[in-house]
Amino acid sequence: MRRLVAAARRYPLVGLAVLVGAVGLALLAADLEPIARWGVSIFALGVALKEGVGMVRSLLSGQFGLDVLAIMAIVSTIVVGEYWASLVIVIMLAGGEALEDVAAGRAQRELRSLLGKVPQQAHRLSAEGDVEDVAVDEVSPGDRLLVRPSEVVPVDGELASAAATFDESSLTGESMPVERQRGDAVLSGSLAGADAVEIVATARAADSQYQRIVALVEEASQSRAPIVRLADRYALPFTIVSLVIAGVAWALSGDPVRFAEVLVVATPCPLLIAAPVAFMGGMSSAAKHGIVVKNAAALERLARTRTVAFDKTGTLTQGHPQVVAVHPVDAMDADEMLRLVGSAERYSSHVLAAALVQAATDRGLALGSSEDAREVATHGVTATVDGLAVVVGKPAFVAEHAAGVERRELPSGESAVYVAVDGEFAGTVVLRDEVRADAAATLRVLGELGIRRTLMVTGDIEATARPIAAGLGIDELHAECLPEDKVRIVRELQPRPVVMVGDGVNDAPVLAVSDVGIAMGARGSTAASESADIVIMLDDVARVARAVSIGQRTVRVALQSIWMGIIISVGLMLVAAVGLLPAIAGAALQEVVDLVAILGALRAVRAGEARLPGLNRAGRTATGPASEDARPVEAPSRGSAPGGVTR
């Protein structure tokens, strides 16, 4: 009873329609049929008037919806005396919202499961080994935490125990536990295994992986799909067909009741319900595979995508550049030059900066500080370190501050940053970064999914980027691009829709202007994730292909469900047109049609389960590393040939 009361409060029109029906039946039992007829008819006309106001507003805004058929069905059944059929139509329309909510709830199960697992507290260990339960927001980097068996890891951390296993299925979609050793990174949201473990926090809760996923999922769950637009594409032709069948039935039979009987089964609930359920199911399936789709409109555009553009560094490459050589000139000491470079780069957010700082730290060099450090986007950094003017970046940028810059010839796969100290060229630092092993397979699968054009749009100079693009089979290359260049290129691309895949701060503008922006969010910038339509929460470019596949299958399921509803409705209209389907029976059958459409749409919950050649279900490569010719290595350098990446 309590559930019935709660349902009535949530869907008052359904409860009111049922109450009117019960009162009407009571009046019939008391031989008060005229009162029952008038009461039910007035109620149904009131609902039709309410829906009619919304319909007029939609028409004035230039949108032709399917609700016109429902309104005409209610009015026509009342006019011909089939007032009980009009009440069933009202219950059907009002109940459609409830059915949609139930189905969408099923479709959003994975989204809700992520939100429901948000850790609320952590077990912090003191220096003496005492355990203190604290709110997860109170955890700071460096805190030592205890994670008990089968508990969710509250924040990103580093494993302090010797070894442990974790269930990362809520993050990666992989069902098998993963093993971690002391010093390995542990992601928040992972589920601890059978043993208690200790971790050292490396981030606050708000900056941890799981909290970022939750924030994006909350945004996704609140989005409205383009489903109305998808269904409304069929609104006008479906309405015309329905009216033609109804009009012909009336004309041939001479009985206006036939007109009403046809319109009763022409009510468009399946069209209105099926698509939203399918899109929510697709978003749920994507979330299960570590792909957060922020709005359902992105899924529809993704399904029609014909062009995909990629950034290079951190997207098609590992994004883990490493210093492999330091080449000072004249009397400059290698360690001193690297110390100055690391000191200047510590103020930069570019992917190169971390590699350069790490290289200096690994050599035990004491980094200096600077009060005037400045990053010049896409070019380099300047800073005063220990009284020395240090410039690090592309050769042209360094040449603006120092004379005698000499470009270094490097083998394929290596690149360099250039260094000047106090107005004199000081040397180069050489770095290397490998192409992702799954990049080639991802490009191949995208082609099999119907992508007709692929591009690399990068800040690197052409000498660095060309071997990478050629090895991966990318159709065309745009190198040495500033952020504004990327925006211009993507805006002009054909055929559309265009997907842009990137991860850095400099990719945020182009992700925002593309038809579908996909951010590699596992290590990418917050700015890129916030401006993108889709965020891949794992360091796995193969999930770009998985996302396209989910979009295609979701739209396919939505269209199949819509057409299934149309075909069944047209069949019922033809039966009603020859007088074999009374209005009250037709109205009841519409509920069955709704149920069939919803069940069909729920297939989208498994949209991510489709097997893709060369990729496993999680989206990663199933055939091992790419071939050697598809794995040239390079560094995301701001340097010479080959080198020079957008900062």
Contiguous helical run count: 23
Q: Which shape, going by the Cα principal axes? A: elongated
Radius of gyration: 31 Å
Helix proportion: 40-55%
What can you tell me about this protein's structure?
The chain is of the alpha+beta class. The protein is built from 23 helices and 23 strands. The strands form 4 sheets. It has a 7-stranded mixed β-sheet, with helices on both faces. It is elongated and about 110 Å long.
Map the helices and strands.
Layout lengths: L1 H9 L1 H18 L3 H28 L6 H13 L3 H25 L1 H8 L4 E5 L5 E5 L8 E4 L9 E3 L3 E5 L1 H4 L5 E4 L3 E2 L4 E2 L4 E5 L7 H13 L5 H6 L2 H19 L2 H9 L4 H20 L2 E3 L2 H8 L3 E4 L11 E7 L5 H12 L5 H12 L11 E3 L3 E6 L2 E6 L1 H5 L14 E8 L2 E11 L4 H10 L4 E5 L4 H11 L3 E3 L4 H10 L5 E5 L5 H6 L2 E5 L5 H6 L2 E3 L6 H35 L5 H19 L31 E2 L13
Parallel strand pairs: 11-18, 11-20, 18-19, 20-21, 21-22
Antiparallel strand pairs: 1-2, 1-3, 3-9, 4-7, 4-9, 5-6, 5-8, 10-22, 12-17, 13-14, 14-15, 15-16, 16-17, 17-23
Helix pairs in contact: 1-2, 2-3, 2-5, 3-4, 3-5, 4-5, 4-11, 5-12, 5-23, 10-11, 10-22, 11-22, 11-23, 12-22, 12-23, 13-22, 14-15, 17-22, 22-23
Tags for this model:
647 residues, alpha+beta, seven-stranded antiparallel β-sheet, 23 strands, disordered C terminus
What's this model, at a glance?
With 647 residues, the chain is an alpha+beta fold. Helix content is 47%, strand content 16%.
